[in-house]
Structure formats: C-alpha cells, structure tokens
Amino acid sequence: MKKVSSKLYKSHPQKRPHYPERTGSLGCIGWFIVILSGAFTLILFPITIWFCLKIVQEYERAVIFRLGRITDRKAKGPGIFFVLPCTDSFVKVDLRTVSFDIPPQEILTKDSVTVCVDGVVYFRVSDPIASVANVSNADFSTRLLAQTTLRNVLGTKNLSELLSDREGIAHSMQSSLDEATDDWGIKVERVEIKDVKLPHQLQRAMAAEAEASREARAKVIAAEGEMNASRALKEASLVIAESPSALQLRYLQTLNTIAAEKNSTIIFPLPMDIISHFMKK
Length: 281
What we know:
Blueprint: H1 2-11, H2 27-43, H3 45-52, E1 53-56, E2 60-66, E3 69-70, E4 79-82, E5 88-94, E6 98-108, E7 114-125, H4 128-133, H5 138-154, H6 159-164, H7 166-180, E8 186-197, H8 200-242, H9 244-260, H10 272-280
Antiparallel strand pairs: 1-4, 2-3, 2-5, 6-7, 7-8
Helix pairs in contact: 2-3, 5-7, 8-9
C-alpha cells in the first residue's frame, strides 16, 4: 500500500499533502507516558477536568501535539476538545482573512526608471496543520515574500506598463504569492497596488509632454475647423452666384445687423445692379 501511494505522489506531485508525513509511532516509552498521564487524569478527575477541556472559537482551529507529534491529520474545532495535561500541547490558528500593507519599495523598472511602489495583500490560512508544521511564522514569512515578489514582478515591467496595467501586475503578484505560500497552508486572496510615486523631474517631464500633446491636438482641431469653414463658405458662394435674389437677401441681412449696433455713422453701399443700370444709360 505504501508503494502505491509513493508512486501516486511521484506522478502527481500537486496531490502531495502540505503537512509532514508521520515519523513513526510513539514507541513503548511514549505509550507508557500517555497511559500514565491518562491514569493521573482519571485519579484527579474533578481537578484535571479544567486542564483537559479546551475551547476554540468558530474562526479558529487547534493543532494538537502529543509528545511532539501531530496527533491527527485534521485540526480540532470549533468547539470543545480534549487534551491530556502532561503530554499534549496545542497551537491555535486563526482562519480569518488578514490584510497587511507592503512598505514602499524603491524599484528599478525595465527601462531604468526608479519608482516607489507600495501595495496591500489579503490572505488567510487554508491548512492549519501546514501553517504550523511547515513554517515557523507564516504571517511574517508571507509579508517578507510579498516585498520580494513586488520587486521581482515590477522589475520586468516598463514605466508605461506600471502606470497603465496595475490590475495585470496585481494578478501576476497574486499568482506568484499563492504558488509560493501553498506549502505553508496560506491562500493569497487578493493583491492591490496602492500608489506609484515618480521622481519630481520625471513628473515635470511627463507634465510638459502631456501639455505639448494637448497643444498639438488643439492646433489640429483648429486647422480642421478652418478647413470646414472654408468649405462651407465656398458652398455658400456657389449658391449665391446661382441666385441673384440670394445676394439681395444677404445684403439686407447685413444692413439689419449693422443697424442693430449703436454706431454714430452708417454708410449704405449701393447695390451693384443699380449702378450697372445707370452706367448703361
């Protein structure tokens, strides 16, 4: 049966359990101590009951060690569980989601720009036994790993990618952290990039570049407006040339506009058709 299980783990390494395998039984001396502790507990039952019964909350689990060995492959809780006062010890593990800030990190991007980036990580304990048996301090180790992962991921990105693709960078960091902390019984649920601080000189250069781009775009829009206006005037002149009455109407409209203004002197130009009539005579 052991040979079959070992072959299975070799062919499918992802199915290997996170917690360490059993190192053997307690032995004769170990069982003697356990039996002696149980007998001592029964003899002093009214008193030892307060040392044997333990309680863990709904969001907690207890990993029990008996003479230094994990007693069961499943953590105890929530509720009441029983321990022997002399041979058993337990460690409480909190299963709630924990968040922490990644301190600002000085990072050199792929295009040799120094930026200061910070973030936030949300994680929780998915395997209490692995978080106790495989790493000395799962919380502190995850914090350090998040800082190094932030440097490694952002070191492969350009400044433009860093400013425009924060969601992709956060997803890449989450995948890397989740894979690295899987053996520790840690599940990384979310990673967010909080702030990206650029050097002041680079900020001024980017502001000048953005202003120049806006001015160029405004000039292009003004040129397009002039071109459209000239086309409209050309079409209007063609319409007026085809109809002499339209020219008279335009002339009267211009006089009406001039009369509406407060001018001391108004010059009325004569229409060209009247002058041409007298010239013929």
